[in-house]
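Document type: protein sequence-to-structure record

Subject area: structural biology

Format: plain text, a pair of labelled lines:
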Amino acid sequence: MTATTLDLKGLKCPLPVLKTRKALTALKAGDELVVLTTDPMAEIDIPHFCNENGHALEAAERTEAGHAFRIRKGSTAS
């Protein structure tokens, strides 16, 4: 299992979701991706993306700069 951090601070919707999707395609099922964002819409968009695409949102928290999401790539998701 691999954990990767994706720093998307400063990017606005829809870029955080698009770059998260691209990063997940390079990972194996069960790998974790930590996504850091400053876009307020990511609080809605990232959980929705995970739910719609079969990824597990392991954690979502507010940080000083924005949000941090820990996503586990789903076994059937791309």
In short: The beta strands are 3-7, 32-37, 56-62, 67-72. The chain is about 30% helix and 30% strand. Residues 42 and 55 are 16 Å apart (CA to CA). The first strand starts at residue 3 and ends at 7.
